[in-house]
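Note to self: the last two entries modelled the partners one at a time, which told us nothing about the interface. This time every component goes in together.
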Amino acid sequence: MILARADQVSRRYGEVLALDRVDLTVRAGELVGLLGPNGAGKSTLLNLLVGLRRPTAGRVELLGGDPRDPTSRRQLGVTPQETGLPGTLRVGEVVDFVAAHFPDPVPRDELLDQFGLTDQVRRQTGGLSGGQRRRLAVALAFVGRPRLVVLDEPTTGLDVEARHTLWEAVRSFHADGGTVLLSSHYLEEVEALAQRVVVIGHGRVLADDSVTAIRGIVGVRRVSLVADDLPPLPGVVATEHAEGRTHLLTTDADQLVRDLVTAGVTFRDLEVRPTSLEEAFLTLTAGDRPAPTPA
Amino acid sequence: MPLALVHARYQLLEIVRIPVAIFGSAFFPAATMLFFVVPSAGDDPTAATYATAAMVTFAVMSANIFQYGIGVAEDRDQPWSSYSRTLPAGPGPRFAGRILAGLAITYFSMLPVVVIAAVATAARVTPAQFLLAAGGVAVISVPFTLLGLAIGYSLPSKAAIVVAQLIFFPLAFGGGLLFGPDNAPGFVDAIAPYLPTRGALELMWAAVTDWRLNPLSMIMLGVWIVVLAAVAGWAYRRDEGRRFT
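The predicted structure of the combined assembly is written out below.
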């Protein structure tokens, strides 16, 4: 049973081609992670699938119908990328408002308890912390007992504890048979949740595979050090110089460090960090383009 | 249509939580009454009644065009509005909810006008006329509400403010809202029946005086309602939230 499908979908904003002939199929019971750097087209694809925007070309299908038809959205729950809650409404009121759109909503107290918001029920959403607002926005996706939830970067800006609370909620929804499509630029998040990963870059699907397979592609480490001169080193995917430091991107950081030592190079301030997906993908998809400078 | 009531309730809640907004919409028609109608037509029962009805129409029009035109355009800038479009409800309940909430605010903003007319002018209505006029306010809100929605859903908020103002004054002037029934300039008499403001004004006059409705104004009011409903519905459907290039 296919719950959401994009078939050769393109979307253009003026001159910019945000999506370029994208295919995506989400089947019942799947937990699919949509990975890619900012501006890759993740949100555009999700917006098309939930009926907020129309494709320029191609076809989108949601729960067997056109996503722009309200009846197709009866079993859909959505968390948009931006948490825009009406600031003057109270938490409980916002939940009730969304619940009124569904025939059999989750009781308010149960939902708020699951997302750790019970104490906030009487507060106006404008007075919540960023993390509380984000949790409420994600909770709203589950109010209507959906078959499919679409979460656009659900945990962006959350601290570790809040992130794990949300992951728990997503996992338990999936364990009860729910289908999830979520976007993220954290590999960690997708690894923690998804079984299948779709990687998007420059408006195209770059990879659509299991988490393990994708991890092999993007498991690039950044070895950063201060050194005057480096000999050619095996296994380095990209080299970058910034602010007096040399950054080496490699798939095997351990071997690279051993090579550095055996080569007798003088270096100091060695750091080894996992790269962000963005860095890994820019490196792997753009060939000789240098990785971006870390912020 | 309980969902329409839900939408209306939350619209009102949001408005009530910022009371200044209500105060503003009640202040404008009241001030107009005090500064224009009371000094010039206050002592003549017929003129004062016509003028009060015109002020009520004027206020209904301004409240609705601005409330919806600008309110909807500003809401569309908010991520919440785009989120609520992913809920399983089409334009029907949202439109209906907005209109119900708008009506409640419109009635509220009428109260000072009615009190001033009763206390400070010679305007008089029978209880039957009063009830008829109260119902009339709901009827004449429809075209202006639809006009506001059409503006709000088709334009970004900064443009909506300008367009609402540009449309507002010619409609008020051309429809004869600023004149009594007998003293409008000739060209206003000529174009007025084709404007929705005139039909609305005549309905209010007919409710509280012995004014006889002009069939042409009524037909054109009906045509306006159909056309504006179509435009508002079209604008809603093509709306994809904010548009950036």
